[in-house]
Design brief:
The structure holds two protein chains of two kinds. By secondary structure, chain A is of the alpha+beta class. Chain A contains ten helices and twelve strands. Bound molecules: flavin-adenine dinucleotide (FAD) and FE2/S2 (inorganic) cluster (2 copies). Flavin-adenine dinucleotide (FAD) sits at the interface of chains A and B.
Chain lengths: ~260, ~150
């Protein structure tokens, strides 16, 4: 467990940002991941009083505050209607209800954890992050950036016409995933995001138009093979690189077929 | 720093260190049903209700709970007494260590979803680990309780 000298509930984003420029201070969100680490910090900067615990839905987009919990996105009707339940499916095996009542969307996306179900599902949608200093940028770009001392304020999902299917392979329910996979069609374009490779989730598009003439057994197989070829994998305690590449083919193909109603 | 928490209906004011965990706060105020199992956010044994929602007190700062309501099994005996006998009748517990966390989360399940299916029970309680049993006894106990309410 990390030791903390001082606890501050920031009153403004500017106060949180300024405190966060000191390397000995850290933002505390759900604290679940942070608690797995060790070391000491001067000031824990809590964002809980900044009204970032709300999901706002308009005609154009969902705006998800950084302190919204995984349980909130699991239960949010609008988000799940829009994503055909993919967001619920992505989070519902993360440890348990109690855990998801604390773990935040901000901590999950900021963390850009290799194993993240959360990053994998949002990556396949038309998603942006709003950073306090860095402004709004596509999640795809943010997912590749190194860590810095900015603040993640919101995650924005544009309501582009979309169909989405999520699945993950776990050795056991509530364990970390061995592989995560979302297939989506956003604004007519097919995409697959693959996480737990075990590196950070990455997005690949159907640049070769393999699904352009519709979803069939053959086109799903061809797209899955192409994704597996383009997504690098590695081995770790949960599975070898070869097993993960095989899983990419299987999960992508299944998700494409489900997307096509087959 | 000074914090105020409404613990099991009573306002508690205390001076704490910034990194005190909620589990240690409630235990130091007499709530010994709340126990450490894994301390890595995995087992559910330390479950308390914060503003009515189940959270893992091993992973929440007491400072975060400042100004909030916290309930432990000590304050929810009556609500728990509705169904714990049905679980005991199944001989569901062996060592019983996991029981307080199970009971707290079952309270929360039944508040959110008074008539859950077996799969909904399994899903809701999946964050409560038991090292002794196979969960079947607990499930049967909760099912019997739900059936008894329909009779
Ligand atoms: C035991 C365990 C199992 C898990 N299993 C899974 C799993 O199967 N699938 C999955 O997807 N995830 C899993 N997770 C990750 C979890 O879902 C959360 O993503 C993780 O705990 C981070 O969220 P948090 O709110 O706890 O953030 P914290 O732990 O509070 O913060 C994480 C990091 O992000 C920084 N931070 C937080 N919020 C912000 C912000 N708004 N701006 C800038 N920096 C910020 C913090 O300073 C810290 O460095 C697991 C975590 C644990 C501990
Ligand atoms: S002791 Fe808190 S989850 Fe295990
Ligand atoms: S009965 Fe022993 S841990 Fe559950």
């Amino acid at each position: 467990m990390v030791t903390i000298q001082k606890y501050v509930r920031a009153k403004t984003l500017e106060e949180a940002y300024t405190l966060n420029q000191n390397k000995r201070n850290r933002i505390v969100a759900g604290m679940l991941w942070m608690k797995t680490g060790s070391g000491s910090m001067n000031t824990a900067i809590d964002l809980c009083d900044l009204g970032l615990d709300k999901i706002e839905e308009t005609e154009e987009q969902f705006s998800i505050g950084a302190m919204v919990t995984l349980r909130q996105i699991e239960l949010h009707e609008g988000l799940n209607a829009y994503s055909s339940g993919a967001i619920r499916n992505a989070v519902h095996d993360i440890i348990g209800v109690q855990f998801r009542n604390s773990a935040t969307v901000g901590g999950s996306i900021w963390g850009r954890f290799g194993f993240s179900d959360v990053l994998t599902v949002f990556l396949a949608l038309d998603t942006y992050v709003e950073l306090y200093k860095g402004g709004i940028l596509p999640l795809e770009q943010f997912a590749k950036l190194p860590y810095d001392n900015d603040l993640l304020v919101r995650v924005i999902v544009k309501k582009a016409p979309a169909a989405v299917v999520y699945s993950a392979m776990r050795i056991q329910r509530t364990d970390f995933p061995v592989l995560t996979c979302t297939v989506s069609q956003v604004d007519g374009q097919y995409r697959a995001s693959i996480g737990a490779r075990p590196g950070r989730a990455m997005l690949v598009r159907d640049d070769e138009h393999l699904l352009a003439d519709g979803i069939t057994q053959q086109s799903a197989e061809a797209f899955a093979a192409s994704v597996a070829e383009r997504v690098p994998t590695l081995g770790n305690i949960r599975g070898s690189a070869a097993y993960r590449t095989h899983l990419i083919k299987v999960l992508t193909q299944r998700n494409v077929l489900a997307l096509g109603g087959l | 720093m000074e914090i105020k928490i409404k613990l099991n209906g009573k306002m508690v004011v205390d001076n704490i260190e910034a990194d005190l965990l909620l589990i240690d706060f409630v235990r130091s105020h007499g709530c010994r049903s709340v126990k450490r199992g894994c301390e890595s956010s995995n087992c559910g044994l330390c479950t308390v209700l914060m503003d009515g929602k189940p959270v893992l007190s091993c992973s929440v700062l007491a400072a975060r709970a400042d100004g909030h309501t916290v309930q432990t099994l000590e304050g929810l005996q009556e609500e728990a007494s509705n169904f714990v006998g049905f679980i005991a009748d199944q001989g569901a517990d062996q060592c019983g260590f996991c029981n307080p966390g199970f009971v707290m989360n079952t309270i929360s399940l039944l508040r959110e979803n008074p008539d859950p299916t077996d799969d909904e029970i399994r899903a809701y309680l999946s964050g409560n680990l038991c090292r002794c049993t196979g969960y079947e006894g607990q499930l049967r106990g909760i099912r019997n309780y739900l059936n008894s309410r329909k009779d």
